[in-house]
């Protein structure tokens, strides 16, 4: 059983729903990533998604896209991100999941890149732009290494595609609260119907992201799903100089 499986199992036993913050590695600086992860764990985060900067984000709104651009301008590379994670891993109990473009994965060897992520201390990965037809080698590598591998399920996903996506998931499933791109929203998302629909076909934990911006949103999502993912709101506030631990604590209030 991998770390992500154990975390969700423990949370279920304890009757709580984990918060999964998203950070862009290298923004506001790569040197801050290790302390940021430690602060998030101390504040109550169970799993953190670490975005590996990419020049052409597929579904990211302006906040995350701009953060990735700033990180790339600072010279942040996948190797550099893995080195920071490697150094931080020993002092962290929480799960670490890489969010990475398939172009990076393919360029760095496909399954061999998954092995490098595992060796660096990552417990899973999300490849949001991966072609479902070609994802099997990555899934097999993740399975062999006890890593999570999450595919994205949108409200518009057809039943036929849903079954194929779920077959490729390990550890958890990433549900999109809304179709479109990431970004902050004022209103809490309505996810009950999507969660119920997907729940009929899998026993894997269901984590919901896209537009989850406030503690109220987190609470609304966790009434139905197994976890809430917060991205743009956190990335924006960290870029403005707010303390990551304080922000996470507020989202769990």
Characterize the structure shown.
It is built from 12 helices and 9 strands. It has a single domain, classed as Aldolase class I (TIM Barrel, Alpha-Beta Barrel), CATH 3.20.20. It is globular and about 45 Å long. Strand 8, helix 10 and strand 9 form a beta-alpha-beta unit. With 253 residues, it is α/β, with parallel strands linked by helices. Strands 5-4-3-2-1-9-8-7-6 form a 9-stranded parallel β-sheet. The longest helix has 12 residues. 45% of the residues lie in helices and 14% in strands.
Whole-number count of domains: 1
Looking at the overall shape, the CATH architecture is: Alpha-Beta Barrel
| Gross morphology | globular
Describe the sheet with the most strands: 9 strands, parallel
**CATH H level, superfamily name:** Aldolase class I
Name the strands of the widest sheet in spatial order. 5-4-3-2-1-9-8-7-6
- Residue runs with pLDDT of under 50 for 5 or more positions: none
Count of helical stretches: 12
| Oligomeric form | single chain
